[in-house]
Specification:
The complex is a heterodimer.
Chain A: E1 4-7, E2 10-13, E3 19-25, E4 31-37, E5 44-51, E6 54-57, E7 64-67, E8 73-78, E9 87-94, E10 101-102, E11 106-110
Parallel strand pairs in A: 2-11
Antiparallel strand pairs in A: 1-3, 3-8, 4-5, 4-9, 5-6, 7-8, 9-10, 9-11
Chain B: E1 3-7, E2 10-14, E3 19-26, E4 30-38, E5 45-51, E6 56-59, E7 62-67, E8 72-77, E9 86-94, E10 102-105, E11 109-114
Parallel strand pairs in B: 2-11
Antiparallel strand pairs in B: 1-3, 3-8, 4-5, 4-9, 6-7, 7-8, 9-10, 9-11
The chains are: A mainly beta, B mainly beta.
Chain lengths: 111, 115
């Protein structure tokens, strides 16, 4: 029972490079989310999706794009990475507004 | 402004002892309050969820309380174990028009249980 799986687990990028973080869930959840977690701050919502083919902006969407082409997958893209995007990224899924199931995070460093 | 404040920021207790973590919020309109446990290097895991009408909810040795009048919640851990060492995050859900509520996350209380 995998739950929410995030890949990769770790990544180091140089400023200006691009990359995509992948999130996959096997619970048939409609809702999926991307958060970032920084020291001393609560989790902050980047983007979310309430169904296949739909996405919406969260609290801190600038510099990120997302896509939800399949119900089980939610992709987070960084087009031109900046040092301010160094963070731990968490993906989550839920059945409507029920408690979310989180992945174990992607630790991203941008030099 | 919607806010969730947790106290203390960190706490050290001896194995076997009890402890209580606090969460104060100014979130409106209130939908529900959740407590999560986050182990180091892992994602948060849901412990409890309480709606406006619920004032206590238990999950094993974890008991959450909610006072919607004073906008306070607490998480009580009984007979602590080394595996309870983690960050405990209070999350308040605010109702809004649309498909999903807005979640406001606290910064967490870091608990260390020592043998």
């Amino acid at each position: 029972n995998a739950g929410v799986t995030q890949t990769p687990k770790f990544r180091v990028l140089k400023t200006g490079q691009s990359m995509t973080l992948l999130c996959a869930q096997d619970m048939n959840h409609e809702y999926m989310y991307w958060y970032r977690q920084d020291p001393g701050m609560g989790l902050r919502l980047i983007h979310y999706s309430v169904g296949e083919g739909t996405t919406a902006k969260g609290e801190v969407p600038d510099g990120y794009n997302v896509s939800r082409l399949k119900k089980q997958n939610f992709l987070l893209g960084l087009e031109s990475a900046a040092p301010s995007q160094t963070s731990v990224y968490f993906c989550a899924s839920s059945y409507r507004d029920q408690p979310q199931h989180f992945g174990d995070g992607t630790r991203l460093s941008i030099l | 402004k919607n806010q969730v404040e947790q106290s203390p920021q960190s706490l050290i207790i001896l194995e076997g002892k009890n402890c209580t973590l606090q969460c104060n919020y100014t979130v409106s309109p209130f939908s529900n309050l959740r407590w999560y446990k986050q182990d180091t290097g892992r994602g948060p895991v849901s412990l409890t969820i309480m709606t406006f009408s619920e004032n206590t909810k238990s999950n094993g040795r974890y008991t959450a309380t909610l006072d919607a009048d004073t906008k306070q919640s607490s998480l009580h851990i009984t007979a602590s174990q080394l595996s309870d060492s983690a960050s405990y995050i209070c999350v308040v859900s605010a109702r809004r028009g649309g498909a999903t509520n807005k979640l406001i996350f606290g910064t967490g209380t870091l608990l260390a249980v020592q043998p």
